[in-house]
Write a structure and sequence with these properties.
- Helices cover about 30% and strands about 20% of the residues.
- It starts with a strand and ends in a 6-residue tail after the last helix.
- The longest helix is centred in the last third of the chain and has 18 residues, at about 310-325.
- α5 runs antiparallel to α8 (about 165-170) and α11 packs antiparallel against α12.
- It is an alpha+beta fold and about 325 residues long.
- A 5-stranded antiparallel β-sheet has the order 4-5-8-6-7. Strands 9-10-11-12 form a 4-stranded antiparallel β-sheet, sandwiched between helices. A 3-stranded parallel β-sheet has the order 1-3-2, covered by helices on one side.
- The model has no long low-confidence stretch (mean pLDDT about 95).
- The structure holds flavin-adenine dinucleotide and iron/sulfur cluster.
- The site of iron/sulfur cluster has 14 residues, from loops.
- Iron/sulfur cluster binds next to loops.
- Keywords: Oxidoreductase.
- GO terms for molecular function: FAD binding; oxidoreductase activity.
- This is Molybdopterin dehydrogenase.
């Protein structure tokens, strides 16, 4: 690991200034991803600006019934908060499906959104990787890629995004709030992660030096009936093979509103807009759920060894929607 300077910031302006003034400076949340990447030489910051003492911790209920979750709130605190569990149960389930208890105690909401891909070639400095070194190639396309993307990938990168939290936030139309020295800004989560295109090293729409200060979840009457399910290679402590976050509002025997997002299938959380359009205003049956999933997956382009994810995603969407339809409030 290369030598680096370290400082704690206690005010947002202090953190922004420290990063703006020092080329190579980075914010440090819980360090559970950044420090790992420093150890293997993928990241080489010259200064770490620790954000955990900034006044950005905690969960507030917004006037519209939504939530504002501070960026330095730990994953454990976010998942345990009674209003998160009550208003957005899929969000609490998603966070609890990630990592381990120790990691969740350290990891912050802001850091979770900005964690890097778990593609093995990304952290193997001897392999070509366009995300690590633009233009060097992609070892995964012809290499080990059974857990890589089936949607939205390009010949430049086929990696998936690892965050469970981001999948639930995507389903709930969350907005990422940030601060720069020029002021405050907001980006809908659905536009926060950039499409892969030919520059997989450019991952988010955050302006340079921006500090994430919160995620904002708009209030919604039916998100209390939501669910997150994650399929993975081990029962715990493993990233998603495929995951689904969904909320379903059925009234008078018809789907009035629905949200579906997929994880583990693309370089970013995949909002299943095509499936939602099939479901809206239709009678909720197992056939409809299957048709919606099939419509969403019709654009899937599996790689040599990950075609199984298409059937898995299709079945998981059907199972999650079927489970939600069977719950008390949706009969
Ligand atoms: C063994 C293991 C298993 C895991 N399993 C899962 C899993 O199943 N699901 C899952 O979702 N995650 C999983 N994780 C990832 C874990 O959730 C992330 O490492 C963690 O959420 C990152 O948060 P952090 O605060 O530690 O980020 P850090 O490592 O501190 O930072 C990550 C990035 O975010 C930047 N950053 C941090 N805070 C801010 C901010 N406020 N504004 C702007 N930039 C900021 C940093 O500069 C850095 O680039 C796992 C991690 C490990 C090590
Ligand atoms: S899939 Fe993306 S992260 Fe993995 S080797 Fe290819 S370019 Fe790198």
């Amino acid at each position: 690991m290369k030598e680096f300077a370290y400082q704690h910031a206690t005010q947002v302006h202090e953190a922004l200034t420290a990063v703006a003034r020092n080329a190579g400076a980075r914010y440090l949340g819980g360090g559970t991803n950044l420090v790992d990447l420093m150890k293997c030489g993928v990241e080489e910051p010259t200064r770490l600006v620790d954000v955990r003492r900034l006044p950005l911790d905690g969960v507030q209920v917004a006037p519209d019934g939504g939530l504002v979750i501070g960026a330095t709130t730990t994953n454990s605190d976010a998942a345990a908060h009674p209003e998160v569990r009550r208003r957005f149960p899929a969000l609490a389930q998603a966070v609890l499906a990630g990592a381990s208890g120790q990691l969740r105690n350290m990891a912050t909401v802001g850091g979770n959104l900005l964690q890097r891909t778990r593609c093995g070639y990304f952290t193997d400095l001897s392999s070509p990787c366009n995300k690590r070194i633009p233009g060097s190639g992609c070892a995964a396309i012809e290499g080990v890629h059974h857990n890589h993307a089936i949607l939205g990938h390009t010949a430049h990168c086929v990696a998936t995004h690892p965050s469970d939290l981001a999948v639930a936030l995507c389903a709930f139309d969350a907005v990422v709030r940030y601060e720069t020295l020029d002021g405050t800004g907001e980006i809908p989560l659905e536009q926060f992660y950039l499409p892969v295109d030919d520059r997989p090293d450019r991952e988010t729409a955050l302006p340079p030096g921006a500090l994430i200060t919160a995620v904002v979840l708009p209030g919604s009457a039916h998100t209390p009936r939501s669910c997150y399910r994650k399929v993975r290679e081990r029962a715990s402590y493993a990233f998603a093979t495929v995951s689904v976050a969904a909320a379903l509002d059925i009234r008078d025997g018809v789907v009035r509103d629905v949200r579906v997002a997929l994880g583990g299938v693309a370089s970013h959380p995949w909002r299943a807009r095509t499936a939602e359009a099939v479901l809206r205003d239709a009678r909720p049956t197992a056939e409809l759920f299957r048709a919606a999933a099939e419509a969403e997956l019709s654009t899937a382009r599996p790689l040599r060894d990950n075609g199984y994810k298409v059937a898995l995603a299709r079945n998981l969407v059907g199972a999650v929607l079927g489970g939600l339809a069977a719950t008390e409030g949706n009969r």
